[in-house]
Amino acid sequence: MADEPNAKQCTGCKKDLPVAAFARDRNRPDGLQVRCRQCVAQYSATHYRRRREAEGKTVREKVDVPAGHKLCRICGEVKPHSEWHRNASASDGLSTRCKACRAVRGRQDHLKRQYGITGAERDELLAAQAGVCCICLAAPAADVDHCHETGRVRGVLCFSCNAALGQLKDRPDVMRRAAAYVEGNAWKPTLVAPGVYQLPS
């Protein structure tokens, strides 16, 4: 096979292999690497292991993954490609985390970025509220509520109560008038000119 023009000997395994078994290297006279792809991969894996061990870091073990599947390094599960988001810049065209792990990480990043708290701190708030909204005391708490002026987290509310605070512009005076109105103690505006009303002080 060494006499064939389409064959080359690998300096690693010493086998005569077809040129397709070698990666390109424009610095070589024949334009091919001296080791076959398999030997280069084996050398890279050994070199990676030695370097990681010398740095005191963990070594990722190679996992056999069936075709059409990928290993998620976060949860450690092998999942089909349908469980991954697309990423055109990645070598395999898929995200580095599965959809489930990416969703969890996205929620954690949102809490830290938007409110300056971790998922554990949010869970502590929920536990202190017994898992219910601290305004209506009925619906499950889901949305973190914060002061828009200071950024201070006030608690965890249900969607409706959180939306209501936003609609009332977080103004206590408006909320007090709304409570008085619901209780039947609404203040009546006084007509002082055509189309002009004055609210009681």
TrEMBL record:
A Pfam family annotated for this UniProt entry: Endonuclease_7
Keyword Nuclease on entry: yes
UniProt KW keywords: Endonuclease, Hydrolase, Nuclease
Statement: the UniProt record of this protein carries the keyword Hydrolase: yes
GO MF annotation terms: endonuclease activity
InterPro entries, A to Z: Endonuclease_7 (IPR004211), Endonuclease_7_sf (IPR038563), His-Me_finger_sf (IPR044925)
Protein name: Recombination endonuclease VII
Lineage: Bacteria, Bacillati, Actinomycetota, Actinomycetes, Kitasatosporales
